[in-house]
Design brief:
3 strands, 2 domains, 3-stranded antiparallel beta sheet
Length: about 120
């Protein structure tokens, strides 16, 4: 007669904590493994770190190229020719290591003039 996984789970659910702990120790010895019980606790309580630095990528120029160049010049401090070359090489990285507020502000400005922008 074969014992199903459900039967095993039912049997374990009726055990005391001390019995379950002893069972775990026996299983570790039998199969030469170590149960990582603290990993489950840390996974549930782990706090995800919020991203603090963002990069802006110009995906597409859109129809208003001159306005996009003006915004890129003001954001990057590039000259007219450098900004124009940068815009024309889209998709391209515009600026990196920005905080969330600045990145969203630049994205909104570029999208207002018709450009397609991605923040990563």
């Amino acid at each position: 007669m074969s014992i199903s996984k459900e039967n095993i789970i039912d049997a374990i659910s009726n055990m005391s904590i001390a019995d379950i702990s002893e069972l775990i120790s026996m299983l570790e010895k039998k199969f030469n493994v170590v149960a990582n019980t603290t990993n489950n606790v840390t996974n549930n309580t782990e706090v995800l770190e919020e991203q603090t630095e963002f990069s802006i990528f110009l995906d597409k120029i859109g129809t208003n190229k001159i306005s996009v160049i003006k915004i890129i010049r003001s954001v990057t401090g590039l000259g007219l020719k450098e900004a124009k070359d940068l815009v024309e090489s889209a998709p391209v990285l515009i600026k990196e290591s920005l905080n969330k507020v600045d990145a969203n502000s630049i994205k909104q400005d570029l999208e207002k003039v018709g450009a397609s922008v991605t923040i990563k």
